[in-house]
Specification:
The structure is a single chain. The chain folds into two domains: 81 residues, 2-Layer Sandwich (Glycoprotein, Type 4 Pilin), CATH 3.30.700; 79 residues, Beta Barrel (OB fold (Dihydrolipoamide Acetyltransferase, E2P)). It has two helices and 16 strands. It has an eight-stranded antiparallel β-barrel. A four-stranded antiparallel β-sheet has the order 9-16-14-11. The protein has a four-stranded antiparallel β-sheet with strand order 13-12-10-15, with no helix packed on it. The radius of gyration is 17 Å and the shape is elongated.
């Protein structure tokens, strides 16, 4: 998931990528990356491990923004404009395919370096007992495959990158 956050009226980009279990992530803010593990989450309070250091974060939100306070510092997170466009459809047109909703990868039909045709089913996701076919938005070559069968994905998580070929 990608976010923009406002810090002293400056917009900063943050990417949160699941790693390992469903409670572990890699957060990248600018050039800095940290490992994040959610130890407990309840009623807007998160107990986290940030690169092994235990911290408590408090989160509140509305439909458009989230306020996160960690060690007395508050940031306001908003979804980036690319992430807000119908499940990543804007990004799909550019050859970057993202998960339309949380789910589990059931089948991957391609490998990095494979040629693909527009409309070809690249992988199958299962979400809420539905099968979702992720199809190539254009002809091209699979540049990056970011998932494998059995992996759980979050909404807007990168699945596949396709480059013109």
């Amino acid at each position: 998931m990608k976010f923009l956050f406002d810090r002293n009226s400056q917009l900063i980009s943050m990417e949160l990528i699941p790693s390992g279990s469903g409670r572990s992530y890699r957060a990248t803010i600018g050039e800095t990356s940290v490992d994040v593990e959610i130890l407990q989450a309840k009623d807007g309070k998160l107990d986290l491990l940030l690169d092994g250091k235990r911290v408590t974060a408090y989160v509140s939100s509305d439909n458009a923004k989230r306020w996160v306070t960690v060690e007395g510092q508050t940031v306001v997170l908003t979804r980036s404009s690319a992430a807000r466009k119908s499940g990543g459809a804007h990004r799909q047109a550019a050859g970057v395919l993202t998960a339309p909703m949380p789910g589990q990868v059931r089948v991957v039909n391609v490998n990095e370096g494979d040629s693909v045709k527009k409309g070809q089913t690249l992988l199958l996701l299962e979400a809420m007992k539905m099968e979702i076919r992720v199809q190539a938005p254009r002809d091209g070559i699979v540049k990056k495959l970011s998932v494998k069968p059995g992996q759980t994905v979050e909404r807007e998580q990168l699945l596949i990158e396709i480059e013109e070929g």
